[in-house]
Amino acid sequence: MATHAGLAHHFDDIEQQREAGTLGMWAFLVTEVMFFGGLFLAYILYRSKYPTEFAVASNSLNVTMGFINTLVLICSSLTMALAVYFSQIGNRRLITVFLLLTMVLGTTFLVVKGFEYHEKYVEHHVPVRFPTYEFKWEPHGSDHAGAHEASSLAVDTGRVEMFFWLYFAMTGVHALHMIIGLGILTTLVIMTRRGRFTPEYHSPVELSGLYWHFVDIVWIFLFPLLYLIGAHLHR
Amino acid sequence: MREHIVSPKVYFAVFTALAVLTVVTWSVAKLDLGFLNVVVALTIAVIKATLVVLYFMHVRWSSRLTWVFVCTGFFWLAIMVALTLSDYLTRGWLTIAP
Lengths: 235, 98
Known about the structure:
By secondary structure, chain A is mostly helical. Chain A has one domain (21-140, 150-228): Cytochrome c oxidase, subunit III, four-helix bundle (Four Helix Bundle (Hemerythrin (Met), subunit A), Up-down Bundle), CATH 1.20.120. Chain A is 72% helix and 0% strand. Chain A has seven helices and no strands. In chain A, helix 1 runs parallel beside helix 7. Chain B has one domain. Chain B is flat and about 65 Å long. Classes of the chains: A mainly alpha, B mainly alpha.
């Protein structure tokens, strides 16, 4: 095997290097599974203790926005997979195009998330207690004639707050991963423009793809767990 | 081991499946199925995650050692959840004298 500009001296050949890179990335992703796993475990425990509050609180989230964001993220995984494909066949222009598309979709996700956070902020659903702002849970719609099903259930405010604490912690950490992902993609675009990737050497694109898809998987679980558990209650 | 290049057709097929499953999970969630709601939602989520891992993340064509790493992650997660729940969910089962 001919030496390659991207081959580090401690590897026998480029295939061994790629294999080692993939394994290393997966070792990191396993730690990420455990990291998010802790939050998911906290969610499972509190939800099993407070099913009513979690359903009612979940019902106040904007399911349409969550649904749109799920599709946006799946699209971004597709464009990322295609960027990896074009790095494998060595089409530099299309790597850039699909990396940029992935970044646009990732940014779209964060903007939608921002609108959702703002909505929650205005509704006083952010679980903090400051002199100027504090968490409030008022069963909306109780003043209307014919109280809504979701609002008529008796709930404990502290337990509802726990749902929102988990909501902000889980989506917040997920959004942080998206922001880091956007930084990685920016680096990849610059590296692509400088002609650093060839069909033989494109590990950074491939491994960043693994990271991006992993973040997508986290959302695949967050969407039903946070948004859909109260969807059968009528607002 | 030579790198396996996955055809874009496969990516588009997986993408379509993921999009359809997202619509399905949203539609089913509107129905009140009792405890089955969470079972259906999580089953669909696991199917979607498996599709992403196998095809988008190329694990289907990766080495056996990569398989071991991937399975280890989810296996350890299962241990953490199972052992913790075996504590919390069974606390009310025994009445211990004060």
